[in-house]
Amino acid sequence: MHGASYMPKLCLSLSVITALSLGLVTPVYAQARPDAHPTGTILTPTWETSAGYQLLHVPDQTFPFGLNVDGARNFGPWSIAAEAGWAFDKSDDVTYNVFNLGAGPRWTARSKAPVWPFAQVMAGLVYSRASTDVLGLDISDSTTRFMLQPGGGVVVLAGDGWGIVGQVDYRRVFLDEEEDGESGQNDFRVFVGVRFILD
C-alpha cells in the first residue's frame, strides 16, 4: 500500500519526461527531414515563382531597366515554366518599351547543396514599341515577333522556401526579312530576383 502512493507521481513524472522528449525530438526531426534542404526548403516542390529586375541588350541598344515574373509547375526535376517581362529605355525623346511573354520546359538540380543550377528554354512573343512626341502628336512604331530563348542560372537558397536567383538568357527574335531588313535578331537578357519555392 505504501508503494501504491508513488504510482500517481511516477506516472506524472513519466508523462512530463515523455512530453519534454517529444518536444525536443520533433523539431530536430522536422529540421532533418530527408526530403528537405537544411534551410527547410522541400526538395520536391510543386510550385515555384520568381520576380525581379532584368537588363536587356539588343543590337546597338541596352535597356537599363526592366521587370520580369515567372511561375513553374514542377514534376520532379522538370517543370513547365512561363514568364512575362518588360524592359524600358528612353533616348533622344524616343521612348522604347519591349514586352516578352513565353513558356517552356525547365530543369533544376535540387539537392541539399546551397546552390541549385537550372536550365530552361522559352518560346513565345516579343512586342516592341518606339514612340515620340512631335508637335503634340504621338508618333509610334511597334512590332510583334516570335522568339526562342534558351538560358540558365542558379538559385542560392537563403531561407525556408525562398532563394536569390540569377539568370542569363540568349534570345533569338525571328524577324520578317522583307519588313525588317533581316531574318533575325540576337538579344541577351540578365535577370536577378527572388524565387519562392512552394510545397
Please provide a brief summary of the model:
This protein is mainly beta and 199 residues long.
Commentary on this structure:
- With 199 residues, the protein is mainly beta.
- The chain has two domains: 1-32; 47-198, Beta Barrel (Porin).
- The protein is 15% helix and 63% strand.
- The chain contains two helices and nine strands, in the order H-E-E-E-E-E-E-E-E-H-E.
- It has helices spanning 7-31, 177-180, and strands at residues 47-58, 61-63, 65-75, 78-91, 94-108, 115-134, 137-159, 162-174, 184-198.
- Strands 1-3-4-5-6-7-8-9 form an eight-stranded antiparallel barrel.
- It is elongated, with a radius of gyration of 27 Å.
- It starts with 6 loop residues before the first helix and ends with a strand.
- Mean pLDDT is 87; it is low at 14-31.
Helix count, DSSP H or I runs of 4 or more residues? 2
What do we call the CATH topology of the largest domain?
Answer: Porin
Care to count the β-strands?
9
Order of helices and strands: HEEEEEEEEHE
Strand arrangement in the largest pleated sheet: 1-3-4-5-6-7-8-9
- Gyration radius (Cα, Å) is 27 Å
User: Portion of residues in helices?
Assistant: 10-25%
